[in-house]
């Protein structure tokens, strides 16, 4: 089964249902509609539950709209967003980078 790792501060938001979207750059897992995955804490590797992907959309970072942030954490500014993703993915992140927006729901 596929796993998607989340930083520890996001786990309570996911489990409460406030966060039901994740964005991935350079998807090396080929995450697709209807995939089930383990929700894993990035720092510890501990599994916190399972979810299923219910929607997948791709677009360039520079083309994101306010509506794309529904179910996803918001950033203070566009620069903070780029700074965050460069921390995770390196300096290759730029406005033309494709982001895979993944909506999911928890499996009870």
- The 3D shape can be described as globular
The major β-sheet equals: 5 strands, mixed
- How large is the count of helical segments? 2
By CATH reckoning, the class would read Alpha Beta
| Percent of sequence in beta strands | 35-45%
Give the oligomeric state of the chains in this entry, treating copies of one chain as homo and distinct chains as hetero: single chain
**How many individual domains?**
1
CATH-defined architecture = Roll
Kindly report the spatial arrangement of strands forming the biggest sheet: 1-3-4-5-2
Distance between the termini: 16 Å
Order of helices and strands: EHEEEHE
- The count of strands amounts to 5
- What integer is the average pLDDT? 96
Instruction: Quote the CATH topology.
Output: Sulfate adenylyltransferase
Helical coverage, percent range: 10-25%
Superfamily (CATH H level) name? Sulfate adenylyltransferase
Domain ASCH: 4-108
InterPro entries: ASCH_domain, PUA-like_sf
Protein name: ASCH domain-containing protein
Pfam families: ASCH (PF04266)
